[in-house]
Amino acid sequence: MNSLKFYVILLSLLTLAIITLAQEDANYLYHNCQNATTSTINSTYRVNLNLLLSSLASNATRNNTNGFYNTSFGQNTDQVYGLFICRGDLSNTVCRNCVTFATEDIVHRCPIGIASIVYYDECILRYSNVNIFSKVDQSPSFSFSLLNTQNITTEPQRFNNLVGAAANDLAARAASAPPGAKKFAVNKTSFNAFQNIYSLAQCTPDLSSSDCNRCLSAAIAGLPNCCSSKIGGRVLFPSCYIHYEITEFYNATAVAAESPPPPPPPVVLPSPPPPRSVTIPEVGDEITTEESLQFDLSTIEAATNNFSADNKLGEGGFGEVYRGTLPNGHQIAVKRLSRNSGQGAAEFKNEVVLVAKLQHRNLVRVQGFCLEREEKILVYEFVSNKSLDYFLFDPERQGLLDWSRRYKIIGGIARGILYLHEDSRLRIIHRDLKASNILLDGDMNPKISDFGLARIFVVDQTQASTNRIVGTYGYMSPEYAMHGRFSVKSDVYSFGVLILEIITGKKNSSFYQTGGAVDLLSYVWKHWRDGTPLAVLDPTLTDTYSRNEVIRCIHIGLLCVQEDPAIRPAMATIILTLNSYSVTLPSPQEPAFLVHSTITDEVNSSSKEFLLEHSKRKSVAYSVDEDSITEVYPR
């Protein structure tokens, strides 16, 4: 009997030690209980709950759960659903300890709960009497700056913008994870010479990509409310969460070890013999000379079947685009530039090397070039889902772009433009943003194409003006179309037109009069002014949209197309506004219309007629919705 007592005591001590060890790896944050009446404590539901918690604890010891497991016990009204998710950078041991402790801790915190959730720094555990699997759940939410109540004292707005941009990048990366994989991403952003911003985002892996992105977007929108200018903060939802600090709080080594290998480098072909080879001064670490990017013309001709019409994808102001397949099966897009470029060979190569260094998930990657005989050719990555206009303006395909996809596309385009304007090695103003220059990958992520072509093609210009217009009527800002004055705000105007096209499903350049409106901008403005903004929404979206997101995007779009460039918001502000409902936007005024603007009166009649003529022209290929203007000479 004494021996039995000894073993009972020893077992109790061992159990306590295990729980204590687990507790060391479970830093409690928050919990929420939905309580039942005391009469249900010993019900069948409670029996099923105990079985569920035991199953979660036992499955946390398995190495193949990928830090996530869900299950249910019981039937009908007695059925209980539960899951756990561990932070994506943690080891199986830390995950197991956190979950083991959580299954004990949640019973003490919620002794009569029928739906409960408990958050720790390392894991989340929840159960409910309703099915919680594969569904976005944003309630209960919890946002806080924890111990980091200290404010950033220098450049707080820039700090907030960096946090917002990093969070948006994380949301896109986490949501793009393949089915069954961890929907998890981390980011390190430099704030100044002494401080970095470390951020992390994660969804439960049972969510779809669009649901994960929607959940994280809502979490990001909550950051300004709790944590504006704070040195750290979190927003916790049952289905996802976002977290940032100025100290490294995740295991960067473990994250790097789990990251997939980088994509294969561009195909490297033998360098051509002298005297054709031209050495370019080193301009960075990744690419030092043009030889690493150069393709032979024979290779390009073979890949495109000698520029066969069957492989032609489209045509624009800078040239024709062809689909190509290299001998190793790698697919490429080949842009055959028109031959009236003013650049010499060396300058052309140098510009391509510079532009090839611009790498962002929302830019089409330049993989190389060819310069032989009279040919000037750019080689891009091939993007499988064609261009935005292919879906947006086709009645049979519009339905494939639900609101969550359109919202993601708007955000992705904004991030790509911000990179070109502020974060890249070069300060690039695109000058031809339009739906046909937004390509969509296999997951419908947007990629901006034709960036940098104004540099590569040598448009005669000074710092603030040009004597040759490069762009597309309907997307060009008035000050650029009529006077050749351009800036980052010229791209903002084009982006505003794009937003309104994405929301309405209507093409600005071929807009048909509706209710007295002469173009898309006046149509949207009329409904905004009359208090009926949702009337402009593409009818194929039916009831699948977020009312707040749509109205906010219309508001942003109208601000972007204001006649005064100074009133148009910067891209950093746009990105922050897209993800934060706490940002107060100024009221838009009537937007700029070329048909009534005072700017129009200053343009000579020949230029005006040229612009009007271009507005009536049809597309010549599926990927181009209107011709680019490359030969307008304003006064």
Radius of gyration: 28 Å
What general form does the structure show?
A: globular
The parts where pLDDT drops under 50 for at least 5 residues are 3-24, 260-275, 277-288, 458-468, 594-635
CATH superfamily of the largest domain: Transferase(Phosphotransferase) domain 1
In the CATH scheme, the class of the largest domain would be Mainly Alpha
Mean pLDDT: 78
Query: How many beta strands in the DSSP annotation?
Result: 19
The CATH topology annotation of the largest domain reads as: Transferase(Phosphotransferase), domain 1
Q: What fraction, in percent, of the residue positions are helical?
A: 25-40%
**First-to-last CA distance:** 106 Å
Give a structural overview.
The termini are far apart. This protein has four domains: 20-132, Gnk2 domain, C-X8-C-X2-C motif (Killer Toxin P4, Chain A, 2-Layer Sandwich); 144-258, 2-Layer Sandwich (Killer Toxin P4, Chain A), CATH 3.30.430; 290-381, Phosphorylase Kinase, domain 1; 388-629, Transferase(Phosphotransferase), domain 1 (Orthogonal Bundle), CATH 1.10.510.10. It has helices spanning 2-24, 44-59, 92-109, 156-175, 209-227, 252-258, 297-303, 345-356, 388-392, 403-423, 453-456, 478-483, 488-504, 520-529, 547-560, 571-578, 605-616, and strands at 28-35, 68-73, 80-86, 113-120, 123-128, 142-144, 183-190, 196-203, 232-236, 240-245, 312-316, 319-325, 331-337, 366-372, 375-381, 438-440, 446-448, 471-472, 628-629. The protein is built from 17 helices and 19 strands. The strands form five sheets. It has a five-stranded antiparallel beta sheet. Strand 16 (438-440) and strand 17 (446-448) form a beta hairpin. The chain is α+β, with helices and mostly antiparallel strands. Helix 2 runs antiparallel to helix 3, helix 4 (156-175) packs across helix 10 and helix 10 (403-423) packs antiparallel against helix 16.
